[in-house]
Amino acid sequence: MDGRQQGPDGDRTDPNVLPAEGLADEHPDERRQGPVVLRRSRMGESSTTDQRLLDSRGPTDWVHTDPWRVLRIQAEFVEGFGALAEVPHATTVFGSARTPRDHEEYSQGMRLGSALAGTGCAVITGGGPGTMEAVNRGASEAGGLSIGLGIELPFEQGLNPWVDLGVNFRYFFTRKTMFVKYAQAFVCLPGGFGTMDELFESLTLVQTKKVTKFPVVMFGRSYWQGLYDWIRDTMHASGKIGDQELGLLHLTDDVDDAVRVVQEAYAAWDATH
Ligand SMILES: C/C(=C\CNc1ncnc2c1ncn2[C@@H]1O[C@H](COP(=O)(O)O)[C@@H](O)[C@H]1O)CO
User: Fold this and answer.
1) Domains within the chain, CATH numbers bracketed
2) How large is the ipTM?
3) What is the reported pTM?
4) pLDDT at 50
5) Nearest CA, atom 5, ligand 1
6) What ranges does the record give for the region Disordered, renumbered to this chain (predicted)?
7) pLDDT in the model for residue 19
8) What's the pLDDT tens digit per position in 242-272?
9) What is the 3-state secondary structure (H, E, C) of the chain?
10) Ligand 1 in contact with 136 (CB < 6 A)?
11) What is the pLDDT of residues 200-218, one digit of tens each?
């Protein structure tokens, strides 16, 4: 077979096969697929690009491949940047997913969210339950911009009811970028492994100057004091961090003090942007 799609009398039988304009004798028949030109043995396939796009049959393994994941990751960045691009000054608040609503730390979270909203700026949390919810609730009820960046989990959860602008992520690392990119300060309420990860990631980003002039507030003296003392008396004392790094931490349980530190960070940001 020579690849030409002609009937026995030389008639063209396939509407997708185009004659080469005015030069039928010199130019072989060809099939066009968008910008692609196919000739001779490459002309075999008779579907169009639209047909192939719309045809849902066939194996689906490719949706579990890394190249496809890369596109999904890209899509998360695009969605996140798009949703958050116009966020004004913001503080990202980390904290336990497990704090019950009747706990004093929940009330503190609400007071903090409310006070941060009072500065006219947004609060960003992980969008989950516990103190994340408390901060969103305090901010939302005070009329502030209450943002939640949710994460896909193996169990059903969803964003807490006081998230007014929410984005759900599949990937932790995409979500972590958003926590940092759209905030000028970090506050850590008492929490477990997740909060520790976020506290130390924040500190590492500031230490390595990936982000500048971000204060890291450890809110809740009785909870954080032991860790702070260990950082100072063991980590710092043995030279694993220097004075500057120790100075990044601000330990308090006073909402006004935390808000003051955050406002200084907003001012420092404005001075450099
Ligand atoms: C474990 C439970 C719910 C988990 N739900 C979460 N939703 C959103 N964000 C979460 C969740 N769990 C952890 N995070 C992130 O880590 C921090 C809290 O972790 P911790 O270990 O509880 O300290 C928080 O800042 C989130 O960004 C139901 O019990």
Assistant:
1) 70-271 (3.40.50.450)
2) 0.95
3) 0.82
4) 78
5) 128
6) 1-58
7) 52
8) 999 999 999 999 999 999 999 999 998 888 8
9) CCCCCECCCCCECCCCEECCCCCCCCCCCEEEECCEEEEHHHHHCCCCHHHHHHCCCCCCHHHHCHHHHHHHHHHHHHHHHHHHCCCCCEEEEECCCCCCCCCHHHHHHHHHHHHHHHCCCEEEECCCCCHHHHHHHHHHHCCCCEEEEEECCCCCCCCCCCCCEEEEECCHHHHHHHHHHCCCEEEECCCCHHHHHHHHHHHHHHHCCCCCCCCEEEECHHHHHHHHHHHHHHHHCCCCCCHHHHCCEEEECCHHHHHHHHHHHHHHHHHHC
10) no
11) 999 999 989 888 878 999 9
**71 CA distance to ligand 1 middle (Å):** 26
Q: What is the pairing mode between strands 249-252 and 36-39?
A: unpaired
If you average pLDDT over residues 67-95, what whole number do you get?
94
Kindly state if the Cβ of 190 falls inside 6 Å of ligand 1.
no
- 154's tokens: 């193996």
Cβ atoms of residues 184 and 93 within 8 Å: no
Q: How far apart are CA 157 and CA 124, in angstroms?
A: 18
- What is the pLDDT, as a whole number, of residue 61? 82
Q: How far apart are CA 29 and CA 6, in angstroms?
A: 9
